[in-house]
Amino acid sequence: DIQMTQSPSSLSASVGDRVTINCRASQGIRSYLAWYQQKPGKAPELLVYAASTLHSGVPSRFSGSGSGTNFTLAVSSLQPEDVATYYCQSYDGAPPTFGRGTKVEIK
Amino acid sequence: QVQLVQSGAEVKNPGASVKVSCKTSGYNFRSYGISWVRQAPGQGLEWLGWLNTYNGNPNYAQKFQGRVTMITDTSTGTAFMELRSLTSDDTAVYYCARGTCFGGNCYFVYDYWGQGTQVTVSS
Fold it and tell me: Which long-range contacts link B57-62 to residues 24+ away (Cβ below 8 Å)?
């Protein structure tokens, strides 16, 4: 199975800051990478798929980049409603696998 | 609008089985596969398997082979997941999720999720 490694595991930033989360795959997954946001007590929500395609309705301050083994989710200007845990997910075949998550808090 | 509504919380003894339902609405049930994903307390997301809702064929994660069964009732647009021989390690929130399609293909990318079903295994 493909292992997904996220970093950092948590971060704290101020409102308006630019925030980046990294995700590395144990082998090349082309652009078969999705990002999800999960708020406490809620189901995950899709943010990005195909590494850089923003899902419908997702604010434009979110962006994804990368291909192969290294990927990044960026938030250009952190907002209070962005407090959540973010997961990357490989979907290059079965089983799809998730990273361990990055918890984002407001400083 | 697309909705996935799951059955309620369950408490089971070790060794028992649990069956969780996921009733869908707002789209053509047979056009999108359904996956099941779980999340243990304070942990990340773990994929249990996927069900082809068009022909009923499942694809289970190796870890759960022999212990999980996924089926559908196409007449009601409902998917079911049964997990047997439960242990305390199976205590988790179980989600159903719809696989999305784009560019003419369908993928294990999940655009709609159920609200989650808490399964607690305890004696």
Answer: B59/A94, B61/A94, B61/A95, B62/A95
Distance from the Cα of A79 to chain B's closest Cα (Å) equals: 23
Residue with tokens 């990927």: A71
Mean model confidence pLDDT for chain A: 97
Q: Tell me the nearest-neighbour CA distance from B17 into chain A, angstroms.
A: 23
Task: State the DSSP code for B115.
Answer: -
Tokens of A8: 């950092």
| Pairing state between β B46-51 and B58-60 | antiparallel
Q: For residue B87, count other CB atoms closer than 10 A to its CB.
A: 9
Query: Rounded to 5 degrees, what angle do the CA atoms B96, A37, A25 make?
Result: 90
Nearest 10 degrees: Cα torsion B8, B58, B104, A30: 100
pLDDT of residue B37: 98
CA-based nearest residue in chain A for residue B40: A100
Q: What is the mean pLDDT of residues B108-123?
A: 97
pLDDT at A64: 98
User: In the predicted model, is pLDDT for residue B63 greater than 90?
Assistant: yes
CA dist B118 and B108 (Å) reads 23
Q: How confident is the model at residue A94 (pLDDT cuts 50, 70, 90)?
A: confident
Contact A18, A26 (CB under 8 A): no
